[in-house]
């Protein structure tokens, strides 16, 4: 794990597209038990997949298959930011995003990795994890490597600064809406109200003239 390879999200707006992360499984999922059972039957035939070996031989903990780390830079003190993820519905997963200060992030890393050697004290970090939530139909042999729970989950990650709780990219739209509302309240509404009064006045005069004629 090399912190210098972590991708950086910079204020006020950064989007990183086409990221992938290997999903883990829920701790109470029956998937792991099923993997071990199938592995027990397949070891003799030599068809144990990489994923099954992970479950039975401890190569990789299926509860924690992969984390993706990101550096959050140029975050102004007192400002508000939004960090969000979008991903396709064809990849059923729950994402977990944790944001830490440098000292907090250091507690979740091996001791030989010293973040202070690479980053300033005011740098923040985000850790992304995906948990597979689809239906498991893992099998042994070659088909196991093509099961959806073995595939990386694609996603985009976005960092945006909030101005008055409005995302940076929505500022122009918000400004247009505000201008339209101000113009409407200041000019259009009074003009429409005046026109309606004129119509009502003319209608009243027409009614009176009609009665006099009778």
Automatic annotation (TrEMBL):
Keywords assigned by UniProt, alphabetized: Membrane, Transmembrane, Transmembrane helix
Regions that span the bilayer: 170-189
Highest rank taxon of the organism: Eukaryota
UniProt name for this protein: Uncharacterized protein
Organism whose genome encodes this protein: Mortierella alpina (Oleaginous fungus)
């Amino acid at each position: 794990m090399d912190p210098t390879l972590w991708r950086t999200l910079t204020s006020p707006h950064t989007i990183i597209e086409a990221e992938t992360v290997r999903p883990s499984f829920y701790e109470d999922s029956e998937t792991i038990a099923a993997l071990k059972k199938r592995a027990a039957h397949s070891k003799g035939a030599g068809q144990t997949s990489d994923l099954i070996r992970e479950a039975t031989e401890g190569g990789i903990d299926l509860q924690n298959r992969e984390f993706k780390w990101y550096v959050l830079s140029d975050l102004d003190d007192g400002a508000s930011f939004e960090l969000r993820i979008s991903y396709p519905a064809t990849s059923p997963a729950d994402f977990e995003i944790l944001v830490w200060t440098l000292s907090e992030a250091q507690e979740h890393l091996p001791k030989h990795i010293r973040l202070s050697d690479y980053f300033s004290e005011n740098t923040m970090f985000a850790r992304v994890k995906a948990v597979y939530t689809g239906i498991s139909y893992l099998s042994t042999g070659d088909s196991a490597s093509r099961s959806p729970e073995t595939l990386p989950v694609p996603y985009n990650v976005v960092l945006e600064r909030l101005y008055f709780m409005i995302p940076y990219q929505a500022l122009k739209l918000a400004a247009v809406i505000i201008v339209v509302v101000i113009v409407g309240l200041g000019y259009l509404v009074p003009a429409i109200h005046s026109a309606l009064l004129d119509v009502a006045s003319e209608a009243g005069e027409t009614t009176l003239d009609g009665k006099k004629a009778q």
